[in-house]
């Protein structure tokens, strides 16, 4: 197993590395699906965690991003990014394996304490690995076709994560022994094994010789991203996005399980619905980001995501009903589609705006800014949720036709629902910060929606013989093309960006 940097990286080596990166992402996502996300929240709730504990567990991965500051010094001193990434990430997965012992402890406070400590250590090691990996990939991968490559990588990662989450949820719901919390031990052990396979694939990715920094001290290089006006606007945007998205999202699982009363198996199917939509549309988002711009993708995907966050509040109004669960599936479908575009475009903008040879500092600045801002959000939200546990805000309509007086409750906000409303309101500021980022020629939201629909129609035609036959007979795609191309606005906005990555 070779972990030292390679003297030369050929096109064949690069292709092999991209192949391995896709597999690494798939196995790493399986690790995350069996250990983190919905499963971790379900485990914490099974141990008796309250809102503040949930907020703390959600904040830890973001707060741990501050470890990237010393990680930069480590990477630039050792200059062996593959070795650093493989060793620390594998170490984190050994700790995930140790979590399988927690369900066998009998003292609940001890279980929660060790869970928090282990989660922080895992996140800190992952942060060091991410710092090394980001610098490594920033130098290795060509900028042309980034959208298509990361779309493929995210597609397989998402698809495998869906299988893992469904399996873990069903395992917990149908565990035949008592106590049922011990089902999580099996899930955590499987997560660690998948993580070890991911680490092996990571060793197969070539690493070019690291560039010698062209600027002075580490602090001086860290100041460079903040002195770059456009990149500073991007950092403000990422900070606001991290705050708004992490204010309510970590509590969605708690809301579904505790407030609406759904079992973990149902919650995992909702999560998988979101991820399937994410995976099925990643390729479309990737093509759009390469053809138009990442900012244009965000200008469409983010409003849709925040609108769904707000709409969750109204799925059980005025009380839980027959259509609550179908509405939740629909909202998760739209949120998954939107989050695919958001994740892809955010990553691409960061890579594109970071100058070659300075990727470590610039990408670390993104992580540090997001962690400082977003890490506080779930902590504040958890404390607020605990304070608002018995609070209620109702809007009531009264009407009277002589006597008696009739009242109709329009909607009622309680407990976690306040967090969703606040998060959606924050989305307005996020969109304002996005408007300040310059990526290239501006593309209107209408063009993005039209192009997304066009790409979706083309995908259906390619995948379905019936769709292809109808497309040939009716030529809907051609009609859509003809409707787009004569417009001067479309010619001005799309053509200059066709040659850009």
Automatic annotation (TrEMBL):
CDD domains: MFS. SUPFAM superfamilies: MFS general substrate transporter. It comes from Caldimonas mangrovi. Gene3D superfamilies: MFS general substrate transporter like domains. The chain crosses the membrane at residues 25-46, 52-72, 84-106, 112-133, 154-172, 184-202, 234-256, 262-285, 297-316, 328-349, 361-388, 408-431. This is MFS transporter. InterPro entries: MFS (IPR011701), MFS_trans_sf (IPR036259), Sugar_transport-like (IPR052528). Keywords: Membrane, Transmembrane, Transmembrane helix.
């Amino acid at each position: 197993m070779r972990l030292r940097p390679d003297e030369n990286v050929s096109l064949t080596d690069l292709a092999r590395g991209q192949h391995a990166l896709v597999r690494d992402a798939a196995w790493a996502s399986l690790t995350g699906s069996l250990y983190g996300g919905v499963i971790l929240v379900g485990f914490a709730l099974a141990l008796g965690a309250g809102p503040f504990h949930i907020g703390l567990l959600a904040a830890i991965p973001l707060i741990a991003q501050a470890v990237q500051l010393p990680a930069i010094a480590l990477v630039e001193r050792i200059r062996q990014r593959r070795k650093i990434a493989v060793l620390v990430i594998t170490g984190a997965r050994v700790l995930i394996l140790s979590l399988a012992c927690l369900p066998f402890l009998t003292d609940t406070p001890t279980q929660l304490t060790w869970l928090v400590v282990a989660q922080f250590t895992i996140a800190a090691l992952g942060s060091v690995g991410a710092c090394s990996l980001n610098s490594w990939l920033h130098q290795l991968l060509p900028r042309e076709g980034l959208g298509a490559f990361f779309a493929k990588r995210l597609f397989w990662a998402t698809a495998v994560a869906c299988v893992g989450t469904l399996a873990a949820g069903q395992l917990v719901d149908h565990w035949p022994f008592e106590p049922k919390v011990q089902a999580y031990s099996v899930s955590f052990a499987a997560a660690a094994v998948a993580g070890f396979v991911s680490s092996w694939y990571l060793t197969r990715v070539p690493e070019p010789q690291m560039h010698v920094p062209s600027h002075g001290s580490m602090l001086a290089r860290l100041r460079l991203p903040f002195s770059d006006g456009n990149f500073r606007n991007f950092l403000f945007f990422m900070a606001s996005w991290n705050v708004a998205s992490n204010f309510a999202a970590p509590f969605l699982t708690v809301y579904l399980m505790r407030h609406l009363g759904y079992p973990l198996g149902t919650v995992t199917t909702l999560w998988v619905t979101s991820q399937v939509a994410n995976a099925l549309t990643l390729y479309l988002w990737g093509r759009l980001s390469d053809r138009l711009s990442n900012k244009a993708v965000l200008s469409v995907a983010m409003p849709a995501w925040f609108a769904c966050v707000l709409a969750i509040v109204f799925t059980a109004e005025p009380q839980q009903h027959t259509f609550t669960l179908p509405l939740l599936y629909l909202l998760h479908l739209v949120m998954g589609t939107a989050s695919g575009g958001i994740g892809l475009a955010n990553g691409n903008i960061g890579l594109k705006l970071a100058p070659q040879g300075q990727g470590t500092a610039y990408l670390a600045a993104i992580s540090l800014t997001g962690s400082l801002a977003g890490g506080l959000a779930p902590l504040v939200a958890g404390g607020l949720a605990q304070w608002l546990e018995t609070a209620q805000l109702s809007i009531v309509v009264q009407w009277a036709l002589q006597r008696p007086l009739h009242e109709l409750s329009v909607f009622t906000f309680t407990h976690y629902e306040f967090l969703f409303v606040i998060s959606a309101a924050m989305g307005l500021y996020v969109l304002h910060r996005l408007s300040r980022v310059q990526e290239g020629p501006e593309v209107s939201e209408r063009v993005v929606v039209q192009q997304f629909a066009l790409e979706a129609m083309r995908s259906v035609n390619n995948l379905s013989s019936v769709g292809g036959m109808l497309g040939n007979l009716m030529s809907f795609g051609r009609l859509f093309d003809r409707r787009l191309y004569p417009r001067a606005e479309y010619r001005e906005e799309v053509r200059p960006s066709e040659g850009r990555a």
